[in-house]
Amino acid sequence: METLAFAASLLCLLYVVVAGAIHRGLSRSTAGRNAALPDVTVVIPARNEAHGIERCLAALAEQTYPPQCTEVIVVDDRSTDDTARRALTWTDRIPGLKVVRISESSLACPKKNALDAGIRAGAGRIILTTDADCIPSSDWIASTVRAFDPEVGMVAGYAPLLPGRGLLSRLLALQSLVVSTLAAGSMGLGIPLTCSGRNLAYRRAAFKDAGGFGPIGHIRGGDDVLLMRRIATRTGWRIRFNPEAKVDSHPHADGLFLRQVRYQSKAVHYGFSVLLVAVCIYIFHVALAAAPFLAWHHPAFRVPFGLMVAAKCLADWLLLSRAARRYHARKILRLFPLLELISVPYVVVICAAGVLAPSRWK
């Protein structure tokens, strides 16, 4: 038991160090000062998105970036509703709007296939991607382009889920803050770990330097994170988090478990060093899950267990509270105690399922 407690304490220390490093990286995510106005291509993959595509296009019609430098490509990926027809009604308000229809997938991941078709149909030097049910802020394109300093090949932005009235909706909103915090902090450290395709942009040159989606086309999911990792590790381009660029969306409760599994399945494709740290943190959560049972049968384990819980909660609070202040999301921190309570079983179950279970895009 002493050996077990010592090993768990070391893993706890690693967790605190990683959280502290992410906290430090948050301070390094600053807006860019690029003054150039390159042509941009906004790619929106859409399958049966008739219910939300017009809200997305309405937001894009209000962008502050020069319309003569902007083209918007909606990729109708085998929709069975009137997604394409509704998108085409916006051509008068978005002169650079195109609708590309695809009928088959050459890549194992349909979303990568849709994105690839949109990228090939466009001509912009900067490619921005979002989802059809998202609502970009009016300065989304302009602030993202400003972040592309000469050495920057990819820019990720803040992609919050809007909290609704239900508890689950607010928990998902808090989870999106966790993801954005990890993205901003890790990119600030120069070790990008995650991002969201709801708010992502990259140079066409960086996309080509990474081999496009070809090298990762056989993997279902990861159109955002796995491309980011290739640009980070296989090219000389820098990756940046832009705290000014914001894209809102509403959480979806349908298919929640499978969607969470798909998110976590990307981790197995990271490099060895990142994967090693991730495995250690996973074992730490397994230890926390087992600790109440061990403490019940072995009273000597109660003090180390209590210290580990306190250390984790403090590290998480310091990190998330700073991010919440920065992104004006303090209200959802009210659910922090509940998040801490469910975070251990979430990591233990969902991360394991992400490794073992196949994932798919709709």
Topology:
Elements: H1 2-26, E1 40-46, H2 53-61, E2 70-77, H3 83-88, E3 97-102, H4 110-121, E4 126-129, E5 135-136, H5 140-146, E6 152-158, H6 167-189, E7 200-203, H7 204-209, H8 225-234, E8 238-248, H9 256-264, H10 272-297, H11 302-326, H12 336-356
Parallel strand pairs: 1-2, 1-4, 2-3, 6-8
Antiparallel strand pairs: 4-7, 5-8, 6-7
Helix pairs in contact: 1-6, 1-10, 1-11, 9-12, 10-11, 10-12
Explained architecture:
- The structure is a single chain.
- This protein has 362 residues and is an alpha/beta fold.
- It is 49% helix and 14% strand.
- Strands 3-2-1-4-7-6-8-5 form an 8-stranded mixed beta sheet, sandwiched between helices.
- Helix 2 links the parallel strand 1 and strand 2 (70-77).
- The chain starts with a helix and ends in a 6-residue tail after the last helix.
- The model has no long low-confidence stretch (mean pLDDT 89).
Task: Please outline what is shown here.
The protein has helices at 2-26, 53-61, 83-88, 110-121, 140-146, 167-189, 204-209, 225-234, 256-264, 272-297, 302-326, 336-356; strands spanning 40-46, 70-77, 97-102, 126-129, 135-136, 152-158, 200-203, 238-248. The chain has 362 residues and is of the alpha/beta class.
Largest sheet: 8 strands, mixed
The pLDDT mean sits at 89
Structural class: alpha/beta
- CA-based gyration radius: 21 Å
Please provide the count of β strands. 8
Name the poorly predicted regions: none
- The percentage helix is 40-55%
Going across the major beta sheet, what is the strand order?
3-2-1-4-7-6-8-5
Q: With helices defined by DSSP (H or I, 4 residues minimum), what is the helix count? A: 12
Task: Tell me, briefly, the overall form.
Answer: elongated
Order of helices and strands: HEHEHEHEEHEHEHHEHHHH
Taking the alpha carbons of the first and last residues, their distance comes to 47 Å
DSSP strand content: 5-15%
